[in-house]
Structures are given as structure tokens and as C-alpha cells.
User: Which sequence fits this backbone?
């Protein structure tokens, strides 16, 4: 299983002072040295962290493949097609969300956009909720495009339930309202969510899609996801960058790779 490092949070820190420190570009060299397989960055419509110039500099300098998460906004698609990253991951985007909240609602209207990426030799991945319907639609899209695509299974719900169950989060002001329920009910939902991720991964894999997963994964919850052998890659950001504040980025990445392996 490969590890893609999402470095948006480094750019977030830079934006708190609107200066050029820390520079997310530096992270790509550390990620390579630490054994990561990919750099993942999200070019958001509001450019709240990664900017167009970061994309240009990172693509020009990286020895690792670059995976750009993006919405289907025309100016973003136009820009990315000129930059030709290794892969794009299409994600839903809402202006006021703190992070990508749910998977894509897949529809025919996306085809021309995805065809543009394919004709620019950019691999396509769709960020979807782990459910049969999303996978079946992704398979259909792959057939319509006439090319193998990837699905990245959204592990955010699994991660949130797991946090509410195993940490003191419910007793803090960060408690997640949606999951404020009894421990036994949370446990049932956790088992159900792991089942959803596993069965979606198997369905997608058996139909020839590349299967990835990510969102909210950390040093405590990654083990359950690693057990699903159809998933070939994880994209992880927040937990690794958070840990790097205390122990350094190189060690934080190596620790995560140790758990994945
Ligand atoms: N994968 C996708 C598609 C995402 O949108 C994100 C968040 O930007 C991640 C993975 C990484 O999530 P996290 O920062 O919670 O590890």
C-alpha cells in the first residue's frame, strides 16, 4: 500500500502570516526522502492554502507523482490541464466547509470535464462515499471514458466515528454533533462504515478500478483500513502534518509508513 502525503496544511500555516514560510515546496523533498509515494495537493476555488504558483513550482520540482484534488470549476480545470500533473482527484467543494465534507454526486455532466483531463494524459480519480451506488456510477463513467480510472473512498465518516469512540472528543467543544450517541450505537456505526469501505473497495477493484482511500486517517485509525487489501494507496495530510510539529516531518511520515507496512 502506497502513501500520498497531503501538504495543504503546510500552506495553511504559511497563510496565517501571509509570508513565504513555511514553504510547502520543501515538504516534497522530505516526503521523497522519507519513503512517501506521492504528493497530494488541493487547489481550492478560494485558494485558501495552495496557490497556483505552488502548483507550478511543485510540479516542476517534484520527483514524486503529483495528485491534485480539485473541483470541476472551469478556471481550475483550464489551469490544471496546462500543468499536467500525474493525476487529478475530482472532489466536491463548498465555500464554507472546513474540509471536504462528503463524496461526489456523480452525474453525466462531469464527462466532458473528465474527458479533458484524459485527453491531456492526466489520470482521473473520483472522491466518493463508500457505497455501492457511487462505485456503480464510477464504473459506468470509466466505461464511458474508455479508460481505467480510480476511486478514492472517503474515510471521513469512519474517522469521525472512530475519534468519537476512542478519544475524549465527545467531552470537548470539538465534539461532532452527528455522532453524539451511545458508545454501543457508535460501535455499530463504526462496524457498518468499515463494512461499507471494504465492500466498496472490493466492488471497485473487481470491476477494474484503481482503489484509493483517504480523509481523517491518523496513527490510531489507519490499521483497519490497511487490512483492506484492494486499497492500493492512502492519502493522508492533517494527522501527519500535526505530528510533524512535535517530531519533524520526516519522522512523522516514516511512522505512518511503518504502520501501513
Ligand atoms: N483525500 C482527499 C480527496 C481530501 O480531500 C483530503 C483532504 O484534503 C485528504 C485525502 C486528506 O485528508 P486529511 O488531511 O484529513 O488526512
Assistant:
Amino acid at each position: 500500500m502506497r502513501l500520498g502525503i497531503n501538504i495543504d496544511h503546510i500552506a495553511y500555516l504559511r497563510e496565517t502570516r501571509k509570508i513565504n514560510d513555511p514553504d510547502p515546496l520543501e515538504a516534497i523533498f522530505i516526503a521523497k526522502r522519507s519513503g512517501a509515494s506521492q504528493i497530494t495537493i488541493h487547489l481550492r476555488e478560494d485558494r485558501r492554502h495552495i496557490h497556483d504558483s505552488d502548483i507550478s513550482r511543485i510540479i516542476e520540482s517534484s520527483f514524486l507523482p503529483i495528485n491534485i484534488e480539485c473541483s470541476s470549476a472551469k478556471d481550475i480545470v483550464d489551469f490544471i490541464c496546462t500543468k499536467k500533473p500525474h493525476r487529478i482527484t475530482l472532489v466536491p467543494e463548498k465555500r464554507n466547509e472546513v474540509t471536504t465534507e462528503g463524496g461526489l454526486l456523480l452525474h453525466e455532466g462531469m464527462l466532458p470535464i473528465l474527458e479533458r483531463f484524459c485527453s491531456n494524459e492526466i489520470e482521473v480519480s473520483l472522491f466518493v462515499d463508500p457505497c455501492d451506488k457511487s462505485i456503480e456510477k464510477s464504473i459506468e463513467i470509466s466505461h464511458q471514458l474508455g479508460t481505467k480510472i480510480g476511486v478514492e473512498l472517503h474515510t471521513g465518516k469512519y474517522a469521525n466515528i472512530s475519534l468519537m469512540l476512542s478519544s475524549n472528543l465527545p467531552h470537548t467543544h470539538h465534539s461532532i454533533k452527528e455522532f453524539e450517541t451511545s458508545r454501543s450505537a457508535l460501535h455499530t456505526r463504526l462496524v457498518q462504515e468499515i463494512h461499507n469501505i471494504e465492500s466498496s473497495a472490493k466492488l471497485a477493484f473487481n470491476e477494474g478500478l484503481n482503489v484509493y482511500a483517504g480523509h481523517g486517517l491518523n496513527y490510531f485509525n489507519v490499521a483497519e483500513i490497511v487490512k483492506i487489501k484492494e486499497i492500493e494507496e492512502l492519502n493522508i495530510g492533517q494527522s501527519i502534518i500535526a505530528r510533524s510539529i512535535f517530531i519533524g516531518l520526516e519522522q512523522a511520515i516514516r511512522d505512518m509508513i511503518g504502520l501501513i507496512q
Residues 2-260 form a domain with the TIM Barrel fold (CATH 3.20.20.70). The chain has one domain: 2-260.
